[in-house]
Amino acid sequence: MAQLSGKKVIIFFLFFCVFVLAKAQEESEIYRPKDYKDRAQFEKFRKRRMIIAAWQINQLKEGAIVVRLKTNQKLIEALRKQGNESLAIEKEAEQFAIDKNTLDAYRKQLTFCKVYFMYSYSSDSLLQGAKSGIFLDSNLIVDPLITMNEKFYLIAERDYAYNSSIGFVKEDSAKFVSEHGNPVKEMAVVVKNKYSHQLKAPFPYYVKDKTYAGANADVTEKIIFNGSTKEVLIGKQFSKEKLALYIGILNDNLIQFHQSTPKPELDKLDPSILPFLY
Question: Which of 20, 67, 108, 178 is the most buried (most CB within 10 A)?
Answer without folding.
Answer: 67
